[in-house]
């Protein structure tokens, strides 16, 4: 049975050659996926994600529950699939931007801009991202630090901190620990807690993170 526990793996895996004999099956699977994701997106817009069930998605999409569960183990997997393309586009644009060394922009300024963009993305996709994390955290093997999203963000932020040290913008620090801590503070649950429980605006949250990890170091 195929589960999408790691949707990013499917996203970054090699493309498979098309085989005519499988054409109709692939076409049908593609149609099922389109209907499921379209239905889920509509339901998530009209209900809170926590209130939407797999049974409801299957019924509204007009597919059997077996068909749905063969593709998605739980709501978190549906959310992951919905986010695949937008997440990859976001990360790719961020990687291109941060990889460019600008003579008129300091490394720490680039780090600050990176944090702002991450918070913007988390704010826009917070409910979906939070559901994905919560659906996997009860698994003994779950490790946020090994997830492709975390790894890619770590790989693009670390060089900025290293360059800041090399150029004398900041004193020598533990780069790995610093970046891990920055990313841990930006996870959806943290953001939603500060926004929905403590009443922080997106701007206040972003300014606070930058004060701690850009101005503070």
UniProtKB/TrEMBL annotation:
GO molecular function annotation: DNA-binding transcription factor activity; transcription cis-regulatory region binding
Pfam families xref list: TetR_N
Organism domain of life: Bacteria
Entry keywords, A to Z: DNA-binding, Transcription, Transcription regulation
Keyword DNA-binding: yes
HTH tetR-type domain span: 30-90
DNA-binding annotation, residue ranges on this chain: 53-72
InterPro entries named among the record's database cross-references: Homeodomain-like_sf, HTH-type_TetR-like_transc_reg, HTH_TetR, Tet_transcr_reg_TetR-rel_C_sf
PANTHER family cross-referenced by the UniProt entry: HTH-TYPE TRANSCRIPTIONAL REGULATOR ACRR, HTH-TYPE TRANSCRIPTIONAL REGULATOR RUTR
Protein name: TetR family transcriptional regulator
């Amino acid at each position: 049975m195929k589960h999408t526990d790691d949707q990013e793996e499917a996203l970054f895996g090699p493309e498979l050659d098309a085989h005519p004999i499988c054409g109709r099956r692939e076409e049908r699977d593609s149609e099922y996926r389109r209907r499921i994701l379209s239905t889920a997106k509509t339901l998530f817009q009209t209900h809170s994600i926590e209130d939407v069930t797999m049974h409801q998605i299957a019924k509204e999409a007009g597919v059997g529950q077996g068909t749905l569960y063969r593709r998605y183990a739980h709501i978190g997997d549906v959310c992951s699939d919905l986010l695949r393309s937008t997440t990859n586009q976001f990360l790719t644009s961020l990687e291109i931007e941060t990889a460019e060394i600008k003579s008129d922009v300091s490394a720490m300024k680039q780090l600050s801009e990176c944090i702002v963009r991450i918070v913007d993305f988390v704010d826009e996709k917070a409910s979906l991202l939070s559901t994905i994390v919560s659906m996997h955290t009860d698994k003994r093997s779950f490790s946020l630090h090994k997830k492709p999203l975390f790894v890619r963000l770590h790989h693009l932020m670390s060089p900025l901190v290293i360059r800041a040290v090399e150029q004398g913008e900041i004193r020598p620090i533990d780069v790995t620990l610093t970046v891990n801590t920055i990313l841990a503070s930006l996870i959806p649950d943290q953001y939603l807690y500060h926004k929905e429980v403590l009443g922080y605006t997106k701007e206040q949250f972003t300014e606070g993170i930058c004060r701690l990890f850009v101005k503070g170091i």
